[in-house]
Specification:
Layout lengths: L2 E7 L3 H11 L4 E8 L6 H14 L7 E3 L14 H4 L21 H11 L4 E5 L4 H9 L9 E5 L15 H5 L1 H8 L5 E4 L1 H4 L3 E2 L1 H10 L3 H20 L5 E2 L1 H10 L4 E10 L10 E3 L4 H4 L12 E8 L1 H11 L2
Parallel strand pairs: 1-2, 1-4, 2-3, 4-5, 5-6, 6-11
Antiparallel strand pairs: 7-8, 9-10, 9-11
The protein binds alpha-D-ribofuranose and calcium ion.
Length: 320
């Protein structure tokens, strides 16, 4: 039986690659996309989610609209310099004829998790605001999800949106801290693994040549802008596979390895805002006064190592 998933997404070029991966994976059943602000505005992430499904011919998959801003902070405006003004590499596709459903993202998540108890994996690829709002509205969903597997965070490496924070966490640190503290099975695919793997320009050319599907043409066109940012900004040959790495984990978790750590997120404004802080130590250490912020927090499955070759091979096989 395919794994039932709901992808919470801020497309976003690497989100688009992750959605393409999911739609091309028989191991996964996409119950819906829920949209969130992040790489660009909620209006654009929602439009892009609808466009991707329409181009893929998957009008059977609902799109539910989520939060337009963080829990207690203004939306920072997004990163058009990474994903393009339209969020899809300035491909400026015509507006999709598809419409989002009336149900909000929060209510869609709650409804589906209650309809399929212990079967659904929530896959947040953007800020964790929708996850936090769903938990606040229906705390019982923590006992009903199969797992939550996120793209976000940086345990033992620097941030990417600031020296401290990874973009999804830094966008809404309060939401992230709440979500990492919920009693649900959770896996973090963060920069510790996603910045150790590259899709090279040669790989990208191979992906484009592999399929003339409308979806592959759109994603590859959008990818050009994202690749240019990565090669010029990060001075690397290729791009990080942040969001597709999460879908690869769902299909083959053996490519990754890591450890279990209680996590906190810095929510105080200042140098360390948005930093994900893992607790390292045994129960003795946990009794020390300085360990108090981590006491009573569930351990999150934090991925720290990845087999780069197997990851790139798997991702390329699903970008069709
Ligand atoms: O830090 C990378 C993450 O932030 C990815 O999910 C990217 O799409 C952006 O949302
Ligand atoms: Ca994303």
């Amino acid at each position: 039986m395919p794994q039932k998933i709901i992808i919470d997404t801020d497309p976003g070029v690497d989100d688009a690659m992750a959605i393409q991966f999911a739609l091309n994976s028989p191991e996964l059943e996409v119950l819906g996309l829920t949209t969130i602000y992040g790489n660009v505005s909620l209006e654009l992430t929602t439009a892009n989610a609808l466009t991707l499904l329409e181009v893929a011919g998957r009008t059977d998959i609902p799109v539910a609209i989520g939060a337009a801003k963080p829990l207690n902070r203004p939306f920072g405006g997004g990163v058009a310099f990474v994903h393009g003004d339209d969020g899809l590499g300035n491909t400026f596709r015509p507006k999709s004829s598809l419409k989002a459903i009336d149900l909000s993202a929060i209510d869609f998540i709650i409804e589906q998790v209650k309809k399929y108890p212990n079967e659904i994996t929530l896959v947040p690829l953007g800020p964790l605001t929708n996850m936090a709002l769903a938990l606040q509205k229906a705390p019982e969903i923590a006992e009903l999800v199969k797992e939550v597997v996120i793209m976000g965070g940086n345990a033992f490496v620097p941030g990417n949106a600031s020296p401290s924070g990874e973009a999804n966490i830094l966008n809404d640190p309060e939401a992230a801290d709440l979500v990492f503290g919920a009693n649900w099975p959770m896996t973090m695919i963060g920069l510790d693994v996603t910045e150790s793997t590259l899709l090279t320009s040669k790989d990208a050319k191979e992906v484009r040549a592999a399929s003339d599907s409308e979806l592959n043409k759109l994603v590859c066109d959008a990818y050009v802008f994202y690749e240019n940012f990565n090669t010029t900004n990060n001075k690397i040959d290729g791009s990080f596979l942040h969001d597709p790495s999460v879908l690869a984990y769902l299909v083959n978790p053996t490519i990754f390895s890591g450890g279990k750590y209680p996590l906190r997120v810095e929510t105080q404004d200042g140098l360390s805002l948005g930093k994900t802080w893992p607790f390292i130590g045994d129960d003795d250490v946990l009794t020390r006064p300085a360990s108090a912020p981590w006491r009573g927090r569930p351990a999150v499955n934090v991925m720290l190592e990845v087999d780069n070759e197997r990851l790139v091979k798997l991702v390329m096989s699903r970008l069709r």
